[in-house]
Protein: Ammonium transporter
Organism: Gossypium hirsutum
Amino acid sequence: MELPSNLIPDEASPEWMNKGDNAWQLTTATLVGLQTIPGLVILYGSMVKRKWAINSAFRAFYAFAMVLICWVGWGFRMSFGDKLVFFLGKPGVALDEKFLLKRAFAGYLPTATMVFFQSVVEAITVVLIAGSLLGRMNFRAWILFVPLWFTFSYTIAAFSIWCPQGWLAKLGVIDFAGGFVIHLSAGVAGFTAAFWVGPRAEKDRRNCPPNNVILMLAGAGLLWMGWSGFNGGAPFVASTISGLAILNTHVCTATSILTWLLLDSLFFGKPSVLGAIQGMITGLVCITPAAGVVQCWAAIIMGIISGSVPWYTMMVLHNKVKLLKLVDDPIAIFHTHAIAGGLGGILTGFFAVPKLCRLFYMVTDWEKYLGLVYGLQNGRTPAGFKQMGIQIAAMGFVIVLNVVVTSIICWFIGLIVPLRMSDEELENGDDAVHGEEAFALWHEGERLVGRRHNNKVYDTHEFSFVESKGEVQMV
């Protein structure tokens, strides 16, 4: 069969493109996407009370879709494009084939692949914020919050830290896969937004059991395994660094889980599933900024720290610090992401291996990317302390950025729609907000009311009968 004259094979597979790297990057992007859809959709929908299952899962579903459109519309170029100011790129669309098919700014792959990978990374960041707002934020307010926070917060942090033209990137900050850009940002933004929205109804705060523990574990499992794409895709190449990053990710996470369970057992007498999931998340978050630039023994130490420090802040400090008690954070996003992400960023500055950093960043500058441990070991202590200072400066920048921007966004949204649900919606949950219920289950003392179909419901002691279209059926 003769190829059409206007089809140029070299453009479909140019010399600069590495097919293996491109396939790897598309695979890792899909794994990251699965962390949100369905990972966090399942995790959020099952960790909350039954009446909030749809609302919680739907927040993640909506945010994923909205972010992808905003990303190709203007976000990618604001994060990784030409510099507008020292902390932000110029807005621009990423829709033209001439732009999408050319080589990406990093790696041997097309820009289209880079755009997709970064879009799913950004999507999970916004969805993590939702975890701090479950059970009371007005869904219409959430609809507005997603594109506004994405535009005025995430793009600034991404450009400053990840883009080669960003000011923190030029200083030499190490954030392998998003400890600062993603997790610290999400944790601080979620905590700030939760402050402005206010707490859940008092009875929901007192009694908030998960509605399905097995599904909760399934969602957590998707999040854990999907992290192979999260950290393994950060180098934009199927390399030795990718393999090391994935191994370190899972070693740190396993260590963090075991540490958390040990502390639960010692202080509360028994391990818990919720504790294991929290320990999993803190381990994943803590290793993210360091995954491919530290040795495996360092990943184990980071796992011990990530399984113990956030445990202490969540189980002990949370009940003693007035601000932490005041802000309602239903699934502890502040502890699992802000605390763990900040810890990971600082520990990265401590344990980063100079050789691994040079392999990742493709530089030969011996004065950059030097962990303090190796600075002390090699007689380059000032360079090691400088790296620690850069890491702390980046952490401070991200914290201030998200407190200020998130507060302004919440204030602005409050001028348009209420930030908080009405009392009726807080009382009735999904049925009042969406006209739907997650589970068609019958419980003692509850009735399934078929409002949409004008069904009549008859309750007996053991069974329920539903009349629909003139026929009575036993349920």
